[in-house]
Design goal:
This protein has a two-stranded antiparallel ribbon with strand order 1-2. The radius of gyration is 13 Å and the shape is globular. The protein has four helices and two strands, in the order H-H-H-E-E-H. The longest helix has 17 residues. The chain has a domain of 65 residues: Arc Repressor Mutant, subunit A. By secondary structure, it is mainly α.
C-alpha cells in the first residue's frame, strides 16, 4: 500500500492553517471568519471564507456539523492531514 503525498500548500494556505492552529492553542476553540481574516491581513471575511472552503475540499481543515447539517460555531480545526501538510510546508524546496 502506498501513501498519498502530502498536499502542497500555497503561502495563503499555510498562513490560514497557522492562524487556525495558533487560535486553537491560545483559546481552545477555532476562530470565526472575521477573526481569521484579520489575522491573515484580509479586509473582509469573504476572502477567508474562500480559503477555508478550498481547505475543506482538500480535507486540510474541518468544521463539525450538527445532525441537521448546520455547522458548529467556532469549531474550525485542522485535520491530521492539515497538520502534516503544515509541518512539511517550508521543508520542501522548489
Amino acid at each position: 500500500m502506498t501513501r498519498s503525498p502530502i498536499p502542497p500548500l500555497t503561502p495563503r494556505d499555510a498562513s490560514a492553517l497557522r492562524e487556525i492552529q495558533a487560535y486553537w492553542q491560545a483559546h481552545g476553540y477555532g476562530p470565526n471568519l472575521r477573526e481569521l481574516a484579520a489575522a491573515m491581513g484580509n479586509a473582509t471575511p469573504s476572502v477567508s471564507h474562500g480559503v477555508v472552503a478550498q481547505l475543506e475540499q482538500r480535507r486540510l481543515v474541518e468544521t463539525p456539523r450538527l445532525a441537521g447539517g448546520e455547522r458548529i460555531a467556532r469549531a474550525l480545526r485542522l485535520t491530521e492531514w492539515g497538520e502534516r501538510a503544515l509541518a512539511a510546508y517550508g521543508k520542501v524546496t522548489p
